[in-house]
Design brief:
The complex is a heterodimer of chains A (251) and B (176). Chain A is 46% helix and 11% strand. Chain A has a 5-stranded antiparallel beta sheet, with helices on one face. Chain A is α+β, with helices and mostly antiparallel strands. Chain A has helices at residues 6-11, 14-23, 26-32, 76-97, 144-162, 181-194, 203-224, 232-247, and strands at 39-42, 46-50, 60-64, 101-108, 121-126. In chain A, helix 6 (181-194) crosses helix 7 (203-224). The two termini of chain B are 17 Å apart. In chain B, a hairpin with a 3-residue loop joins strand 1 (17-20) and strand 2 (24-28). Chain B has 176 residues and is an alpha+beta fold. Chain B has a domain at 6-104: 2-Layer Sandwich (HIT family, subunit A). The interface between A and B is large, with 93 and 96 residues. Strand 4 (101-108) of chain A pairs antiparallel with strand 4 (79-86) of chain B, so a sheet runs across the interface.
């Protein structure tokens, strides 16, 4: 493989960079058949192989054939397909290996423990007392206030990502299958138009400005903290079930 | 809804919800492993993944991806983990199928890494053959996938494979 300087990288088109990533990705070589592997399953979109460094016997790696580094970059339909196959593989493990459970694990980013540059789903067969403790999630104590604080931040952002308007009627994401980043930005555009600000700048600049303002508005909203929480109608019900829960013995 | 299920009650009560649509609900974990730990689950009560219909799996993981994106953006984290603990042996602690979405930061003290086990070539080949044999049927869901996503009678689907499901249900009974 020829050495590539940072200068070269700057001059490359996104397509060229993607091609380079593929050339350097061992899993892309496995998919193309240049590198040998123990294949469990394959279709037109994905491939499942045995992990050569398994957490447990029967540890499977399921990958899209196309090279994607992390999950946010993968088109929605591929994600849906991959996890339906993952379910099938989990079921196959239960039947084939007589195990008592499986872990389905995804690491997005180095901080999450991702080691390969190719997105993959781990399907790990589990038996009781198999000595694998890494998937036992530690439980930290948090206050209701802390939960509420994160809930507000996350709810706003999730609505934004899904293209759901914060106030008024909540639309189901199914109706607007926004695929990638571009998708959700266009989803949010109608909101911008309502602002009725000056429309002097035309063309591309207009788009950039709109996107920028949109971001700003998002940040503003986050800082204001939950003014448009229109969940009042649910509160009584919450209280009732809470009280009920306490009377029933805390569960 | 399963009256004994703590998570069915959460779905019903509306407390801590961060996302909801006709099929799934996401709540914040009340005993999080990391800041912003979210639990995403189908509204319908399914103890394990194998019982969840394909079209719900298809939908719920798309939503999981979006929640993960939202976590990246809103919490400024450097990574996310998705984890399904499927069965008691896998660390499942409630009888409601769920996906954990865990935002990750460098040096957050959370370790989800395993030590690789050394298997002989023979062991690997045996396992490979067994898995391959059982993975042959996976393509069948493809019909499911191309069908329009709509709410169907899921119970009917489970009963359609009586042999397998009874085996699964046996396992499920062991979940507290």
């Amino acid at each position: 493989m020829p050495e590539i300087s940072p200068e070269d990288l700057k001059n490359m088109t996104p397509e060229q960079i993607a091609e380079l990533q593929k050339q350097n990705c061992i899993f892309c070589h496995i998919i193309s058949g240049k590198v040998a592997s123990k294949k469990i399953f394959e279709d037109d979109k994905c491939i499942a192989i045995m992990d050569i460094n398994p957490a447990n016997p029967g540890h499977i790696l399921l990958m899209p054939k196309e090279h994607y580094a992390i999950m946010p970059l993968i088109p929605e339909d591929i994600i849906g397909h991959l996890f339906m196959v993952a379910k099938g593989l989990s079921h196959a493990s239960l039947r084939a290996l007589k195990v008592e459970g499986t872990n389905i694990f995804v690491a997005n980013g180095v901080a999450a423990g991702q080691k390969a540059q190719h997105f993959m789903i781990h399907v790990v067969p589990r038996k009781e007392k198999d000595g694998l403790n890494c998937f036992m999630l530690p439980k930290k104590r948090v206050t209701d206030d802390q939960i509420d604080e994160i809930r507000k931040i996350m709810k706003k952002r999730i609505n934004y990502v899904m293209g759901i308007k914060d106030s008024g009627e909540e639309e189901m994401p199914e109706k607007k299958p926004a695929g990638k980043d571009e998708g959700r930005q266009t989803d949010a555009k109608p909101e911008m138009k309502k602002d009725g600000k000056d429309t002097g700048i035309a063309g591309e600049n207009e788009d950039i400005r709109k996107k920028y303002e949109e971001k700003e508005r998002e940040i503003e909203k986050e800082e204001n903290g939950g003014q448009d929480e229109s969940k009042d109608s649910g509160i009584d019900l919450d209280k009732i079930t809470d009280i009920l829960g306490k009377q029933m013995g805390g569960k | 809804m399963n009256k004994d299920c703590r998570y069915c009650q959460k779905i019903f009560s509306g407390k801590e919800k961060v996302y909801e649509d006709e099929k799934v609900v996401a709540v914040l974990s009340d005993s999080p492993s990391a800041y912003g730990h979210i639990i995403l689950m189908p509204k319908e009560h399914y103890p394990i993944m194998e019982q969840v219909p394909d079209f719900i799996i298809n939908h719920i993981f798309r939503i999981a991806n979006k929640i993960s994106i939202a976590a990246f953006e809103a919490l400024h984290v450097q990574g996310t983990n998705l984890l399904v603990n499927n069965g008691i042996a896998a660390g499942q602690d409630s009888a409601h199928f769920m996906i954990h979405i865990i935002p990750r930061r460098e040096g957050d003290g959370l370790n989800l890494q395993w030590t690789p086990k050394q298997l002989s070539e023979e062991e690997m080949s045996t396992v490979e053959l067994q898995l391959k044999e059982n993975a042959k049927t996976i393509g069948q869901f493809q019909k499911e996938k191309t069908a329009p996503i709509e709410i169907r009678d899921t119970k009917e689907k489970i009963e359609s494979k009586p042999g397998e499901e009874s085996y699964l249900l046996r396992k499920v009974r062991r979940i507290p």
